[in-house]
Amino acid sequence: MISKERIMEIIGNYDLDNLSIATVCSHSSLQIFDGARKEGLKTIGICVKKPPKFYDAFPKAKPDEFIVVDSYKDIPKIADELVSRNAVIVPHGSFVEYLGYEEFVDLPVPTFGNRSVLEWESDREQERVWLEGAGIHMPRKVKAEDINGPVMVKYHGAKGGKGFFIAKTFEEFKRHVNPDEKYTIQEFITGTRYYFHFFYSPLREEGYQLSEGILEMLSMDRRVESNADEIFRLGSPRELEAAGIHPTYVVTGNVPLVARESLLPLIFELGEKVVEQSLKLFGGMIGPFCLETVVTDDLEIKVFEISARIVAGTNIYLNGSPYSDLVDSNLSTGRRIAQEIKLARSENQLDKILS
Amino acid sequence: MISKERIMEIIGNYDLDNLSIATVCSHSSLQIFDGARKEGLKTIGICVKKPPKFYDAFPKAKPDEFIVVDSYKDIPKIADELVSRNAVIVPHGSFVEYLGYEEFVDLPVPTFGNRSVLEWESDREQERVWLEGAGIHMPRKVKAEDINGPVMVKYHGAKGGKGFFIAKTFEEFKRHVNPDEKYTIQEFITGTRYYFHFFYSPLREEGYQLSEGILEMLSMDRRVESNADEIFRLGSPRELEAAGIHPTYVVTGNVPLVARESLLPLIFELGEKVVEQSLKLFGGMIGPFCLETVVTDDLEIKVFEISARIVAGTNIYLNGSPYSDLVDSNLSTGRRIAQEIKLARSENQLDKILS
Amino acid sequence: MISKERIMEIIGNYDLDNLSIATVCSHSSLQIFDGARKEGLKTIGICVKKPPKFYDAFPKAKPDEFIVVDSYKDIPKIADELVSRNAVIVPHGSFVEYLGYEEFVDLPVPTFGNRSVLEWESDREQERVWLEGAGIHMPRKVKAEDINGPVMVKYHGAKGGKGFFIAKTFEEFKRHVNPDEKYTIQEFITGTRYYFHFFYSPLREEGYQLSEGILEMLSMDRRVESNADEIFRLGSPRELEAAGIHPTYVVTGNVPLVARESLLPLIFELGEKVVEQSLKLFGGMIGPFCLETVVTDDLEIKVFEISARIVAGTNIYLNGSPYSDLVDSNLSTGRRIAQEIKLARSENQLDKILS
């Protein structure tokens, strides 16, 4: 991983009055560009082959400039170009996925957030060490032969939940599993899914206090999963199995929701614990993160995954959410990132939020 | 129940230029506080042990002051303190539940709305007398031995829908029922649930006219119920029963929605009938109320319950809804309550909206 | 169909400084009236028997004037009255349905959009010629005897999806079908439904370029269908069949959602193809239209229907959506229509958007 010193050296040569925000043209780029512009920052869209035409339909979110690559794998080749434009990269999920983990952590361009989080987040075992170490309740890990109730089986390499499946018995597991792939078996928690969109600021002083900095919760969503969300129209999973039709869990979009207000203390506690543990383990997870949870009928919250950067569920709230409206008007997560970068700049603390 | 005369006597000693809005720190308090502040009123949060930290993350909704109690049951002990701060209580569902019905109706602090509504709303039989007397279509009551199609069985004491269950036959009913608890059996209506958020103003003159005052419909939501909303991913209710897994109906949050515009005449008619009947029966249900309904595929609306105060589903619309936007900008139900209190104050008609 | 020449002759006598927007009091009229008023245009509500009272509850959307008819079939009788008020009709789905296809296309009142689209859209065969000719992927048509997997059976005359049903085998089909009605059998696509709300402007120059004019995508929704969306609470379709309970697909409302940003290029491509083909086939589909789709777990989008005018799903976004917010503030589809009419007026190009 590129060292903090090297990044700060690069930033040392930046014309800070002309910072620009760069990201890959996908995932949550509309709000990242729109938010940066609202905060008066320039924007750069990184795209493959040619600028995507759809930005023309969203003038407020069209980046000021595009940098074209042949393939996202070539982003390292434009590092100098990005640096020459005083760019800060805002990495979203697709950015890291398209570029590749190794290439991302080495990229010699200042990047919003702490890149060290990746090694804790990208491996399910490490993630569990982090979250359970923080005192978070996760679905139990289950050994195949111990299955005696519903479990969710997740393949490590699976893109977007396509190979995931639910089993209720060992027999059912054996019938479905592809033994050639690495998988994890988790207890299936019955309840309703909530994805909480937090923001950790090491810089702001007013707000929900942590040991260092403050915690915000800007919005929440539920993912829309294809085909699992609507397949019940055809039949129950067992009935469909006979017909060779299987539920899949590929995210196609997001719906807005709010949680019972009485859950807010618990929700914030979860966010707080995760950040505090991240400070201990690897110097802190900076900026936006998402806890992916199930709320049970006992009103317990089980966290089944963490995303340590902006998630696409925040796209619903490009002009504010029922929660962010209580912080600031028209506040998207993308805009909040731009605010944090500006604050760090004005307080000469860019080292605290970039890596 | 404390008399109107006593309440008006208390109000008579208030410094009306320094009214404050008080409620319990839960349920819909964020919008109640945010709305009051937007209308220039002071706010008081009533909390147990210590101020909840989460308000620090929502600066616009953080109350100006907290009053701490050891237990919500102790709210009567702070009545004098509330009165000394010229407080008007805005009771939400949790307020009444936490404090207790008897204590709530006797509380010697001016309270928004008509406390008489409680005896009609808190008893399922009385509620049915009120709503059916208003000409509202409710799901039929069914005797256990007459079950010959889907019914919903609701326990009287059940908190948040946990013990509710669906049965399709008498045998299924007998297999599930806990004979030690009081229950109600209602016809199960197939359709889609809509929760309509109304506001009855006895003071405003412009608008949807009732015999006295006007009716507004500010928003609608659908409740998210755990685990019923997602349990189909595991299997059908019958398949899961064998595995000892049962659907439950605990509200964990809310999603926004809108209804077909062609339903609006009927929706308003329902609200109108309920208010008119409340005026006849007990002097009127003042302020926000919610009709909890199922819209069938014949586009009929069956009302299965009424909440005679602000419901948590309005939390989605802290900065306006597709309906309230047509009344006023950034209008939450919480803010609408503050507007009504201000209007009553300026027109010297606080007796019409407080009890 | 009334000729363009005749319409332009009528418009030639209009007092263009006093244009008004007229539509039937249902469907999406609130945003049409609200949007027109925001753009400074007068509004006329066409209603049966008497003005619907519910507008009184939505002052910003109450039309300036009502014209009362005995039945929507009588709208042709008020054509002169509409013309004398310089009215442009904005036809929504209910407008066309209530008035009737034949009467609508002959109505001698200037109408927003191209009325020729109706003959392509109202017949499922023609619709398929149009969409497949544009290179759009639709669910396959299936012959009854070829059913060997899930299909959706749609009756031609069915109002709002009530008679639709799903079958997985020929036997199941035969058991359900009403042989006295005309039906279409389509492959049932498993996935999640998205309804994309586009706007085609032949006049604007800046934006997502088509061969003539530009394309916008202002919002998306998912329809709420009664009772199909909640019937899984009772049991699987097969279990319920025994009890004589059948899923139905009647739209009762809409929920908001957003799609994965990586789908936007494909979504725009679909809109683009449909418009370009409409330009070739019948002079173009002007203004708002909706593609009704299923997004599969391969992230393919299958279009199962098109609506060539404003759809009720846009009612969610009366004050803007996460997409329209990137075009303009507080931009509903209703308001966008009013903007287009004003632009055409100021550029002397009303012939391009009226018929």
UniProtKB/TrEMBL annotation, chains A, B, C:
Gene3D superfamilies in the cross-refs: 3.40.50.20, ATP-grasp fold, A domain, ATP-grasp fold, B domain
PANTHER family xrefs: 5-FORMAMINOIMIDAZOLE-4-CARBOXAMIDE-1-(BETA)-D-RIBOFURANOSYL 5'-MONOPHOSPHATE SYNTHETASE, 5-FORMAMINOIMIDAZOLE-4-CARBOXAMIDE-1-(BETA)-D-RIBOFURANOSYL 5'-MONOPHOSPHATE SYNTHETASE-RELATED
Keyword annotations of the record: ATP-binding, Ligase, Magnesium, Manganese, Metal-binding, Nucleotide-binding, Purine biosynthesis
Keyword Ligase attached: yes
Name of encoding gene: purP
Species assigned in the record: Methanolobus zinderi
Cofactors (names): Mn(2+); Mg(2+)
Chain residues that bind 5-amino-1-(5-phospho-beta-D-ribosyl)imidazole-4-carboxamide: 27, 94, 254
Domain ATP-grasp span(s) in chain numbering: 101-332
Family (UniProt): Belongs to the phosphohexose mutase family.
Catalytic activity: 5-amino-1-(5-phospho-beta-D-ribosyl)imidazole-4-carboxamide + formate + ATP = 5-formamido-1-(5-phospho-D-ribosyl)imidazole-4-carboxamide + ADP + phosphate
UniProt cross-references to InterPro entries, sorted A to Z: ATP-grasp (IPR011761), ATP_grasp_subdomain_1 (IPR013815), IMP_biosynth_PurP (IPR023656), IMP_biosynth_PurP_C (IPR009720), IMP_biosynth_PurP_N (IPR010672), PreATP-grasp_dom_sf (IPR016185)
Biological-process GO terms, alphabetical: 'de novo' IMP biosynthetic process
GO molecular function, one term: ATP binding
Binding site for ATP: 225
Cited function: Catalyzes the ATP- and formate-dependent formylation of 5-aminoimidazole-4-carboxamide-1-beta-d-ribofuranosyl 5'-monophosphate (AICAR) to 5-formaminoimidazole-4-carboxamide-1-beta-d-ribofuranosyl 5'-monophosphate (FAICAR) in the absence of folates.
Top enzyme category: ligase
Domain of life assignment: Archaea
Entry protein name: 5-formaminoimidazole-4-carboxamide-1-(beta)-D-ribofuranosyl 5'-monophosphate synthetase
Enzyme Commission numbers on file: 6.3.4.23
HAMAP family referenced in this protein's UniProt entry, alphabetically: IMP_biosynth_PurP (MF_01163)
Pathway: Purine metabolism; IMP biosynthesis via de novo pathway; 5-formamido-1-(5-phospho-D-ribosyl)imidazole-4-carboxamide from 5-amino-1-(5-phospho-D-ribosyl)imidazole-4-carboxamide (formate route): step 1/1
SUPFAM superfamilies assigned: Glutathione synthetase ATP-binding domain-like, PreATP-grasp domain
